[in-house]
């Protein structure tokens, strides 16, 4: 049983078209076309269409979550973190469609997303603190912490990729196995659990990405404010 | 579990493209629409606040105007009340004056009517008394009423006391010694002689006597001498009867002519 969606469907020289890329485009198309269809006729009055209402609730919810996690203006983080969440959650929800293979069940996809987070963290950190201050956080509190911090960066990126991949892939594998043993009803129940798991994993991935980015943009700020906060708490 | 590096790279590119697409087609339009709506709501809220403030100002102004109008109304009502009170007092005073004047006129008219009535009644009563006395005396005595009147008159002359007789003689000496005897009826020669003899015997023999008939005396005879008078006639009785009649009439109708005709202040 080959469960990998990375098997090529079509190949020309080094260019490969597999199910992961194909369904990724599908998800991208759904998100983009859905957004375009709704946002081309946005209303600025208090009377909203259902689609606009859904998008505004979604965007407002994302901004509030980012605000709560980062305690910063959610504006710069919304496109990256919001797209992570939307892509993952739509990819996972569509797994109930027969014949669909979630792109997030491919380690290539989750690794790519984790790599994006891995790269985004220093970009946001440097943009907020500057290169020197950002790099200084790797040698805090002492220079000896540099390898551990680097290992921590890499390991959490690996954990992000494997966690999402493992959860989504395992749900698909368990569903396929159960389909062989108990073809009726039980796979449906597992698919429902898979939906729940997919949404939770999307939330976890996005929140963790935001936490990493927030930690990179708040380190210096937090270190400077900690004594004051402690002194306030003591008083 | 192995990573397909082409797929890995493609997914990174796909994700970056998706970030750009959603930024362009989702986040920016939705955030712009929300911001614009928030601005509109803020502007509407500010406009509503300004309108409410203006309305409160207008309300305060109208309340002030209402209070001013109410105050002016109270003042006008008070002034009108005073004018009405003054007008009422003036007209009441005028009405009382008119009523008192009417009352005075009425009492005067009533008094005149009463006087006229009393005069008429007196004349009628005297006439009746004369007729009744004449009839009674004629029925009771052998002589007629004239002879009885002459007898009573002569008896009065005889009954003059010394004091009055002295005054009478003194008057007679100081003035014209001419007496006037008036009678309600015509005296016969014998009656005139009896009276003349009595006066000459009893008062003075030198006095001249002139006789004259006066029907107003109503069955009587008077003797006049320079303001001095001896008489007997029904006039006196009628006057007494008149006084008594007037007194009785006043008691019956409870009117004091002297007091009632004057309006009370």
Characterize the overall form of chain A: globular
Main beta sheet strand tally, sense and closure of chain A: 2 strands, antiparallel
Radius of gyration of chain A: 21 Å
Radius of gyration of chain B: 62 Å
Summed up, the helix count of chain A is: 7
Our measurement of the CA-to-CA distance between the termini of chain B, rounded to an integer number of angstroms, reads 136 Å
Task: Write down the domain tally of chain A.
Answer: 1
Helix content of chain A: over 70%
Which protein chains make the most extensive interface, counting residues with beta carbons within 8 Å of the other chain's beta carbons?
A: A-B, 44 and 34 residues
Structural class of chain B: alpha+beta
Average pLDDT rating of chain B: 82
Portion of residues in beta strands of chain B equals 5-15%
Report the principal-axis shape of chain B: rod-shaped
Q: How does the major sheet of chain B shape up?
A: 4 strands, mixed
Supply the number of structural domains of chain B: 2
Total number of β-strand segments of chain A?
2
- Roughly what percent helix of chain B? over 70%
Uncertain segments of chain B of ≥5 residues (pLDDT<50)?
259-265
Tell me the total number of β-strands of chain B.
4
* Mean pLDDT, all residues of chain A: 86
Low-confidence stretches of chain A: 225-235
